[in-house]
Amino acid sequence: MNNIDYSNYKNKIQSRSTLKFLIGILPRFYNHFLAEINRQIAIVKGARIGKNTYITFSLAIKANKNLCVGDSSIVETSNLDLRDTITIGNHVIINKNVTILRASHEVDSLDFETISNPLIINDFVWIATNAAILPSCKEISKGVVLGAFSILTKSILDENVIFAGNPAKFIRNRKNIYSNLVVESLQGRDFLKYISFRNKN
């Protein structure tokens, strides 16, 4: 289920007429170029950002060494608390207005000191719009879906499951993950694969 198979994407690209293929190049190049600018800004700031990955400009500006994102992922929010490490895998989709908090305070302490935890988000995770991940969550396993407006208070260690609600709870197992999807095509940024797969047998 988790093997990458781009054959459907390749067939769609190869079935296009030459004119339609050429028309598709310009917007893909433009979107890829803008995403690459954001990626390079974040890298200069100390983050590790993989190939064909999109992060917002505002996240790129605030990025630091605590941010690590894999290949072909989408992060459409800048609401990431980078006071501790956030590691995001490959083919991850994080939608708009998602909030990821990494630090809080020790409520029973006389000094109210700050406490923080790192977070690992594994491959093929989809975190939907307006979801929030609290510092008590330390890992989200491969293939997890977190529903829109959910509040996640603990780690999800089972793979390919759907959680939703406040607090987020198990809804059901996920039947499939989007392992055949060119994730960057969701934003029209698939310039490199668009060119590469055109002439592949």
Question: What attributes does this structure have?
Answer:
4 helices, globular, 201 residues, UDP N-Acetylglucosamine Acyltransferase, domain 1, alpha/beta
Overview in brief:
This protein is of the alpha/beta class. It has a single domain, classed as Hexapeptide repeat proteins (UDP N-Acetylglucosamine Acyltransferase, domain 1), CATH 2.160.10.10.
Strand element count: 17
Element pattern in H and E: HHEEHEEEEEEEEEEEEEEEH
Mean pLDDT: 95
How many individual helices?
4
CATH architectural group:
3 Solenoid
- The CATH homologous superfamily name equals Hexapeptide repeat proteins
Tally of structural domains: 1
User: Per DSSP, what share of the residues sits in E-state strands of 2 or more residues?
Assistant: 15-25%
CATH secondary-structure class? Mainly Beta
Low-confidence stretches: none
Overview of the structural elements:
This protein has one domain (7-198): Hexapeptide repeat proteins (UDP N-Acetylglucosamine Acyltransferase, domain 1, 3 Solenoid). The longest helix is centred in the first third of the chain and has 27 residues, at 18-44. The strands form four sheets. The protein has a seven-stranded mixed beta sheet with strand order 2-4-6-11-14-16-17. A five-stranded parallel beta sheet has the order 1-3-5-10-13, covered by helices on one side. Strands 7-12-15 form a three-stranded parallel beta sheet, with no helix packed on it. The mean pLDDT is 95. The chain contains four helices and 17 strands. The chain is 24% helix and 22% strand.
